[in-house]
Amino acid sequence: MRTAILASGRGSNLQALIEACQNGSLPIEIVAVGSDQLETGALKRAEAAGIPTRVFLVRDYPHRQAQEEDLLIWMRENRVELLLLAGYMRVLGSEFIRQANFPVVNIHPSLLPAFPGLHAQRQAVEYGVKVSGCTVHLVDEGLDSGPIILQEAVPVLPGDTEESLAQRILVVEHRIYPEAVRLLVLGKVERTGRRVQILQKEGLA
Ligand code: GAR
């Protein structure tokens, strides 16, 4: 399945997806990586893997919607069938979601619907929850509100900081993001309204 990935930063989830493709556990072809930032770790990782990259700086466009229209053109040019957000720190507008005729998937570092938006790990530490985690979900027109494919809990330990919790969650993100995408592309994700059922999980590590 021809897949594009959008990432704004370091790109460790992008790297996990690239490696899952390389080791044969994730049957997608990453055909393009885009970023809304210059010179990010994500772009460097994509280039190292030989994947074409493009930067879409919002300041180069008259307004945000124009940037998203360009993203859609780029995806059509690349015949994209699946879009993965891997630390893409912008909310895609509802017009983009309406026009995207392919699934859009995101990973978020909390157990949604708790702590949507920015700094989810900081929100969790400040709230004082004892358990947080991460969520892979389909993107809809809301903020981190789409149907949930997979979630996994991660303990919040006494003395945790935003950084230490983020690091513990990240290890799990790198495992469940490729796993969720694999289930989706193998047709094992059945959606009824906003509820997603995983049909089979055998064969997964
Ligand atoms: C990850 O923790 C991801 O879940 C989070 O940004 C980080 C990106 O790290 N995404 C969001 O917060 C989206 N709202 P990475 O660039 O190393 O993959």
Concise summary:
The protein is α/β, with parallel strands linked by helices and 205 residues long.
Global shape: globular
Helix-strand string: EHEHEHEHEHEEHEE
Which small-molecule species are bound to the chains here?
glycinamide ribonucleotide
Rounded to the nearest angstrom, the radius of gyration is 16 Å
Within CATH, the superfamily of the largest domain carries the name Formyl transferase, N-terminal domain
Based on secondary structure, the structural category is alpha/beta
Which residues sit in consecutive blocks of at least 5 with pLDDT less than 50? none
Q: Strand tally, please?
A: 9
Count of runs of 4 or more consecutive helical residues: 6
Strand order of the largest sheet: 3-2-1-4-5-6-7
Distance between the termini: 22 Å
On the 0-100 scale, what is the average pLDDT? 96
**Major sheet characteristics:** 7 strands, mixed
